[in-house]
């Protein structure tokens, strides 16, 4: 039933279950993926004519590549690879009686290789919330418990250096469709998808509850740290709010963003306290900008997109502009095979205008994602795995990569432009300080910015945000300054991009660390000695620096792993007196 519009009950597990009535075998699912590609390609060609063919103006989409998982949940890792996972199979999750693992893969966008990384803890993290801890490990809250789509109480950690999973502490109740938001002090906020009382993962790995901040919000709420340190709620429904996550927590309610419940619209934090919100609801094309720098959020309208979109994604590009990809323009709740939007659009924050770009080959609607890669391209993947998806034959177990216009020459040749290069940067930067960027292109650099690694699912970006840096040029060196306000870029791993006068961005240096972290450039050995029964002292020695140390709980692998990026979570190595590190060591140097 193409074009089927379902009621908003897809926002509940019961609603999901009710609209699911189809069971497929593996062969059928492979056929559906093929059919989706063929039907999409036809529709895509029809809309391709809407724009010109010069990649310098409209960018260029790469080939469609089949994937081992549907890219429903994607996160850019500090090593430049992409972690992606879906559920337990190609059909709707409601059709699988057992939910004791999760299909996951680590994709290398440089080589195109896929490394299996299934979740092996016994749980399905389909429809979880996730974002990076300050050390670059990924924190995941909740997931899918059963065919009734109940949430799980488990939290997980993923270690990019070893592709290992481990369990964190249990939440107070199951969560399915929660959001996870990194806070300035290194804590991780968990909201909705279950209990209305938010929970916070503390930096010691345990959880605390915000018992005085109980509030019913939509599933997968849009939450980001604002310049005043509180967490700003920008949607998807209309009422703007801020949460003070200290103590028991406290909400402040402001006015309405606009008159539209932008369910399955999208948002992007493109500057300090600046959020673009677009699309959603009945596939509106409207967009607004919200400024949270003052005491009260200020909303202003910006140009509408050329296409109405729902079930689409907004993604920050390397120059701080915003890319819209996918979605449907007919208001279909989850998927409309005949209503897909194929053309990308780019929003320029300086002009407030959208430019229509090249058309992708596969329709990307419910359960699709888009992720900025360190080389400035965008990975567009996924779509499918729902009852309605099965009914209309939608399964996009594949991905395609968009090369934005900024990477091409502007002379109509269609050739790639020469890119500015970053030759050297410090391994750590702090707020309120300046640092040097060595580049042969210093004289032509127009823009310098830090970009937090993206984590996206269900049209919601949980952490990507752009921090433009002021800078000066002197003798072939850029000196950039990080704002003193720590809330402008919460501690963690960032990419650093420089952009030249032709608008061409560099490849990012990655990882970029926000304040408070140091990194060994080489493998280091770590020794551990007991201070008290539960407290241990860890010492390590980077090849290029003096010995450093920190104290953490001996028995608590989470605490140790949080402090030392890349440490395998196995108990044998955790309690050995001396063990080799697998990657980098990072040491918190923030004041407590
Ligand atoms: Cu879902």
Structural write-up:
This protein is mostly beta strands and 592 residues long. The protein has 3 domains: 8-407, Methylamine Dehydrogenase, Chain H (7 Propeller); 434-515, Immunoglobulins (Immunoglobulin-like), CATH 2.60.40; 518-588, no CATH class. 8% of the residues lie in helices and 35% in strands. It is built from 6 helices and 43 strands. It has a 6-stranded antiparallel beta sheet, with no helix packed on it. Strands 30-35-34-31-36-37 form a 6-stranded antiparallel beta sheet, with no helix packed on it. The radius of gyration is 23 Å and the shape is globular. The chain binds copper (II) ion. Copper (II) ion (CU) is lined by residues 127, 367, 458.
CATH topology of the largest domain: Methylamine Dehydrogenase, Chain H
| Molecular shape | globular
Segments where pLDDT lies below 50 for 5+ residues? 1-9, 511-523, 553-592
Q: Please report the total strand number as a whole number.
A: 43
What gap, in angstroms, lies between the N and C termini?
57 Å
Proportion of residues in extended strands: 35-45%
According to CATH, the homologous superfamily of the largest domain is Galactose oxidase/kelch, beta-propeller
Largest sheet: number of strands, sense, barrel closure: 6 strands, antiparallel
**CATH C-level of the largest domain:** Mainly Beta
- The CATH architecture of the largest domain is 7 Propeller
Q: What is the helix fraction of residues, given as a range?
A: under 10%
Strand order of the largest sheet: 6-5-4-3-32-33
Bound molecules: copper (II) ion
| Annotation field: number of helices | 6
Rg over CA atoms, rounded to whole Å, is 23 Å
Determine the structural class based on helices, strands and strand pairing.
Answer: mainly beta
| Count of discrete structural domains | 3
Average predicted local confidence, pLDDT: 85
């Amino acid at each position: 039933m193409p074009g089927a519009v379902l009621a908003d009950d897809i926002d509940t597990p019961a609603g999901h279950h009710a609209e699911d009535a189809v069971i497929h075998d593996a062969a059928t699912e492979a056929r559906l993926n093929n059919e989706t590609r063929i039907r999409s390609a036809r529709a895509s060609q029809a809309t391709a004519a809407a724009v010109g063919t010069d990649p310098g103006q409209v960018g260029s989409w790469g080939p469609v590549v089949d994937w081992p998982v549907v890219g429903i949940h994607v996160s850019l890792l500090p090593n430049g690879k992409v972690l992606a996972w879906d559920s337990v199979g190609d059909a709707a999750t409601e059709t699988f009686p057992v939910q004791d693992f999760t299909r996951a893969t680590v994709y290398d966008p440089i080589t195109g290789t896929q490394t299996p990384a299934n979740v092996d803890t016994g749980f399905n993290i389909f429809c979880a919330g996730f974002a990076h801890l300050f050390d670059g490990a990924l924190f995941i809250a909740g997931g899918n418990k059963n065919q009734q789509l109940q949430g799980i109480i488990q939290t997980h950690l993923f270690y990019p250096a070893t592709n290992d999973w481990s369990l964190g502490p249990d939440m107070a109740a199951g969560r399915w469709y929660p959001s996870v938001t990194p806070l300035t002090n290194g804590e991780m906020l968990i909201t909705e998808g279950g209990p209305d009382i938010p929970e916070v993962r503390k930096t010691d790995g345990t959880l605390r509850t915000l018992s005085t901040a109980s509030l019913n919000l939509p599933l997968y709420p849009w939450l980001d740290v604002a310049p005043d340190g509180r967490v700003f709620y920008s949607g998807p429904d209309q009422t703007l709010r801020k949460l003070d996550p200290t103590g028991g927590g406290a909400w402040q309610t402001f006015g309405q963003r606009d008159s539209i419940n932008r369910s399955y619209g999208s948002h992007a934090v493109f500057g300090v306290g600046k959020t673009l919100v677009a699309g959603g609801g009945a596939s509106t094309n409207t967009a607004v900008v919200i400024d949270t720098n003052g005491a009260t959020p200020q909303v202003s309208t910006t140009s509408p997109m050329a296409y109405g979109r729902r079930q689409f994604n907004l993604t920050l590009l390397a120059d701080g502009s915003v890319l819209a990809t996918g979605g449907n323009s007919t208001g279909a709740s989850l998927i409309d095979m005949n209503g897909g939007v194929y053309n990308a659009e780019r929003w320029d924050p300086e002009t407030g205008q959208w430019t229509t770009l090249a058309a992708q080959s596969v329709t990307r609607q419910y359960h699709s994602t888009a992720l900025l890669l360190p080389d400035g391209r965008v990975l567009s993947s996924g779509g499918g795995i729902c009852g309605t998806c099965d009914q209309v034959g939608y399964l996009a177990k594949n991905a395609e990569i968009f090369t934005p216009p900024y990477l091409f020459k502007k002379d109509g040749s269609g050739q790639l432009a020469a890119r500015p290069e970053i030759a050297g940067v410090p391994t750590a930067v702090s707020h309120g300080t300046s640092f040097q960027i060595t580049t042969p292109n210093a004289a032509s650099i127009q823009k310098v910015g830090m970009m937090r690694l993206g984590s996206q699912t269900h049209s919601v970006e949980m952490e990507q945000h752009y921090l433009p840096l002021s800078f000066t040029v002197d003798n072939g060196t850029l000196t950039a300054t990080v704002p003193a306000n720590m809330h402008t870029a919460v501690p963690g791993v960032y990419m650093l991009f420089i952009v030249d006068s032709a608008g061409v961005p560099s490849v990012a240096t990655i990882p970029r660390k926000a304040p408070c972290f140091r990194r060994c450039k080489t493998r280091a050995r770590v020794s551990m000695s007991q201070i008290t029964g539960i407290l241990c002292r860890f010492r390590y020695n980077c090849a290029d620096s003096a010995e450093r140390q920190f104290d953490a709980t001996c028995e608590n692998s989470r605490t140790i792993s949080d402090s030392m990026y890349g440490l395998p979570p196995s108990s044998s190595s955790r309690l050995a007196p001396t063990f080799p590190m697998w990657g980098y060591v990072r040491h918190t140097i923030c004041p407590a």
